[in-house]
Batch of 3 targets.
Target 1
Amino acid sequence: MFSFISRRVLAGLATLLVSTFAMFLLVSAAIRPYIFMDLEASTSPNKQQLIDQRTLDLDLNTNVVIRYFKWLGDFVTGDLGTAWRSGQSVSNLLQGAVISTIQLVAAATVLAVIFGVMVGIVSALRQYSTFDYLTIFVSFVLYSLPAFWVAVLLKQWGAIGFNDFLRDPNLSILAIAVVGVVIGLLWSLAFGGTLRRRLAVFGMGFAATAVALLYLQLSGWWEEPNLGPVIIAVTGAALAFAVTALVSGLKNRRALYASLTTVVVGVVVYFPIQSVLRQVDNWLLVLVLAVVTVAVGIGIGYAWGGPDKGVSARAAGITAFLVGSMVFVDRVMQFWPAYLGAPAINNRPIPTIGNSTPNLGGNFWVQVLDQYTHLLLPTIALVLIQFAGYTRYSRASMLEVMSQDYIRTARAKGLPERTVVMRHGFRNTLIPLATIVPIDVITLLGGAIITEKVFARPGMGLLFLNSLTGGEIDPVMAYLVIVAALAIIANIVADLIYAALDPRIRVNA
């Protein structure tokens, strides 16, 4: 393992050195017109003197190769340079841009992978069904949509439309019925089976959706959104069954009881934990509470025991994380009225630009809520586009795996279908995704340039674009080096994931 990582790191450094040299030559030639664009358009009588002075200040008369080695020496010693137009150091510019991009990428990637893989696998298992054809159609439509067009539509309907709706948040019976029918149809198509089973699933999906929307309407939820112990209990119980079904199967009663016990504990401590959350004023404390929550869930799983304590602990730990996440979201929602009524918000809480509201003020939870509202639209834009790709990849991979001889052998041995799909099929389906996901993450860490431009998020992509058009080589080179280095790391991580998912693969081979 150590020798493999050492070889890959050395090869990566050599690749990075060569690529930075090539990039420096290309960037120097590309940005030169932008450096003097403002001066060339000037009518000043000493225009030529200004051009000569800028040439001298930026050392443009020196050979580009010599300038590269000067830049490389400064970069290695930790001096990333300065954005000469603003006078800010590149380190400070990168710090804010990286944080903004990571916030966006983390949420978008996790959601896209979870929903994309889930829908893709269900589509593969229901090949040639109506649900499969619908998934293929939606995936191709989303994959072909231009990112800027999706972003503009979200700004129009997701921000402006929803903000207008909050002035008089009333859903008509017709709207509730239409949404209920659509959700019911999707669930019935996903589950499939006999006509009787489909009608039963449709009825449950329709009823659950209609009841939920009526509750939101009648309880004034839009003005004061919350989850509360009742919703957390009901949703947590459903999640406990779902997690147990995926991790061990519902026949493993100890795992199921451990998950349900975790939900009960979460509901019981809901009110006492509020006093603890009042003291939270930074993300480090949130992380500590998350670790404690998962540890409690794992402890409950081991306490229930059973033939395989690890399975019970895994199911309870995942359930604990999900229940804890709902408690966290509920705490954030409690500050919605204060956030909505703030002068800087003016009852229009869904923003269309930026990553924070100027002059908002408020405590930690208000700031978290503000960050979430600014992340909402760009995250949805990225999720819609990434979801299409992950759905197609996971569907194709699952179809290939489920046609293998070892899948037929597993079924011939009499293994339950859940075991065949989850342990033999799903694990091997993830192997092709192990290459795609790390590369996609690194690509997005480089900045979703179009999305960040439309939503004016000061991330890596917007920093690169502004620096390139501003003729600032130091920020551009710092951006390119970071992206190139992360791409090399992503390939190493992909190889390690291969080895973890498939024991036949050895990184020392």
Target 2
Amino acid sequence: MFGGKARTPGTERPPADLPDAAPHGLSGHLVGFVEALRARGIPVGPSETVDAGQVIAVLDLMDREMVREGLACALLRRTTQRATFDGLFDLWFPAALGERTGADEVEIPRRPDGEVDILELRKMLAELLVADPSGERTQQLQQLAAQMVEQMGQYRSANGPSFSAYQTLKDVQPELLVSKLLAGLAAGVDDSDFGSEVARRAARARVKEFRGTVEAETRRRVAERIGRERVATYGVQRQAEDADFLRISENELAELRRSSQRLARVLASRLAARRRRARRGEIDLRKTLRRSMSTGGVPIDLASRKPRPGRPDLVLLCDISGSVAGFSSFTMLLVDALREQFSRVRIFAFVDRADEVTHLFDQVTPLDQVTRRIFTETKVVGIEGHSDYGAALEGFAEQWPDAVTSRTSLLILGDARTNYRDPALDTLRRLADTAKHAYWLNPEAEKSWGTGDSAAKRYAEIVEMYECRSARQLTAVVGGLLPI
């Protein structure tokens, strides 16, 4: 669409043409792009959309990167949204339509029998990656990626021909070029450990960048066949706040760690607003009806109950085993950031034994180090090391009988998978009856509760259980549940 010639079989299009799916020209296309951003968790309001329209009206539409940066300035509020924005921008404003062509097109080397010469291709790729960054080098790498996708990435699916980034790169294996790139980048650089590490990171970054170029080209070609909306649902990086806790990647979990303070501020503001409303007191129905006697039964003068000041206690009991460790660790960090909102916060962790870990949050420590310290400095793992909710609940109630009182709000985190062991329902019932509030946050989908070794439905009969599969869902649930 922008930035160079393109062709589809049998037709030629000028570069500035909009895709056929745009219902109302450029304005309709922009609205569709904004809707796609919203669908991927990026909040874009009417004012930002108007700003984007004004940006489009004054920019040179033939300069694709200028359009990208202009729309990013108008539509984005946080830098963490940029990766998702770029993925959707490449789908809604593609660099070309169909197979890319160009005057300086890079040709893939082939053997006399017509097959791709993998060794020569690796050599060509290594030379381009080692070269100093420039506009010409970037264009050549993009052309090489396009040629590789076209000639090496095609396969036939159930719905017809398609393209695959894995199919494109499986024989080339660009990661094998890191040593060659390292030798080229290290030339003329000092031989110290620092210089070697800088060259090593630069080599890996360039290989990763080329892999991303191939993946972007693959998404563009597939989107032309099955539709960009469908590709956007699985081919564009999601916001870390929308990532499923049970399938979250290391990069997404790291992003959540960085955003924990921001989410904590959001929750703190919600709690403060609820606390301000609570200070007014609830309507006292009996007093209001008595006052209405002087107005013929019409409740004109409302009477309110006196608010009860004082901040409650909060106790977290968290399963940190297996795949739920990321969910529990992030929630512990999030709630610890809200410590000033409560009179006291106590945090307990368990696998098959419970132990208090509150003291580990007293210092400013990265989340991954907190998790590591829980396993090395506390006694949360017994002999077997498998999740045992029954043993953990009974041990918690026995060793810390004063932790849960009538002023305590108990928050349990875990998937309730007991490995077919005794769930200790009576112990949980005693804790729930003692606590002022008791809630259970489960990172599994509700449809999976009660399947296999899950005792979620049995626990849900005693304690209110809520599905919390992502940070966004967790923030909404916790913001409504935390006591004031």
Target 3
Amino acid sequence: MGAPTTPVARPRGLYDREAEWDQLVAFVDDPRPRPTIGVVTGPRGHGKSFLLKALARATNGFYFSGQEAAQAETLRSLAQQYARHADLAREPHWTGWRDALLTLAVTGHGPTALVVIDGFPEVVRQSPGLPATISEVCHQLGDGPGSSSRLRLLLCGSTTPVMSRLLSASARWVDQVVEMAPLDFRQARDLWAIEDVALALRVYAVVGGSAAFRFDPAGDRPPAGFSDFDRWIRECVLSPRLPLFWKAGHLLDCVPDGVDVAACHSTVAALATSRSTPAEIADFLDRPATDVPHILSHLEARGLIHGEPDAFQPGLIHYRITEPLLAFDHAVIRPHRSDLVDADDTEIDEIWRQARTVFERDVTAPHFAQICREWAVRFAPAEILGDAPVSASSGSLPHTSGSHAAGQPAIIDVVVRGHEAGRPGPLLSIGMVSWAHPMDTLHVERLRGHLTHLAALGENVGQTRLACYGAAGFSPRLRAAEAEGEVLLVSPERLYGDGQRSRKAQEGGRP
């Protein structure tokens, strides 16, 4: 992206986020003489607060971060910080949020108009009527005689039901929505300045695209190379003396009344061990199937998991954990937490040695498969698939007469579809993924069998390309099949753009 078109310079040290910065600056610079409201949301740890603090400094705006407290304490803290910001001789005394907002709106009369309320879900928990009060005050300021308030109010919070409800009402009273998505696997590699793609995949499987962890103590001593990965895990991730060890557990601790936090943890544990369907999760919990949808709905509303329809059986939903650290925690840390808390370095080394197989099988392998699906939709060159892909998901191949007579249905790891109005789009590609073992022509033969099966089911397979996604390499015969145009081979180097790094890796910078 080129230089910002606004006069507010993007701060040095802000990694990526050019589009989000320009959106927010344009929101503040909006010349219309009326109050406007914006919402900034996204998962925890992806730089929302850092971005908004930088914006407030650059525009002389007012930034306030709420936390768990009674309303009276929050209003006192808000008054103290506002008095310092506005250089008031005495702190204002507010009896409620209406008084506070009317005072904060004075900021909108000058050249700087920004007011940020961060931690908005926490503030709403103590003041449930706040969204309605904000709407009423902004309506009053905008419709009053001779009104010229240029209040630019930004409400920020991590993905929660509160923010979801706010977004669902956005058509009525929210003027701007900025969603801070996690950095993708390529951006995360640049952020961590990792050359080795095998190492990049494993680090991403632990901390994902959360920029905060790069500037956590765990990021002070990042792995220097592939052979240094185990040292980094032992010293920076599994050490109870560092905050990263505890962070994943906190993601599930703040739950509303009526939600079983223990069941939430066990549901995430089920997902972290490759149980992806509601039926599999109910079996893991040893609970009736009717108990599971409420738990899944809560976790999805908080942005911790995501459900996707099966590529061939849309009524079947597969869930996956969207926060990699949460998956790592429940697969690796949680089963050993009590031992790790009191362990010395030698004992941590032994625990990790035992857990390494679980990490590769239950954490990194499914994470690699998800990266392959993301690559197919977002990064694969257009000529490879023959058409613009619309979706990539996994699919459970339904049985037909005479096929797969018994046992589990075949799973196709990467099913890429194109666009077709009113029905599932044509199959652009079907692919298999292998994390730990080299791939051979046997994988292509299996894919050909699946393609014949899908044609019998009425799928549009006229342009379907077979693909093998392999992290452990490809046999010479498979390479020869690729040369003949029979199969597309996708290695980690290809996923990352043939190892080419963006300029951001050289610049560094904080998210």
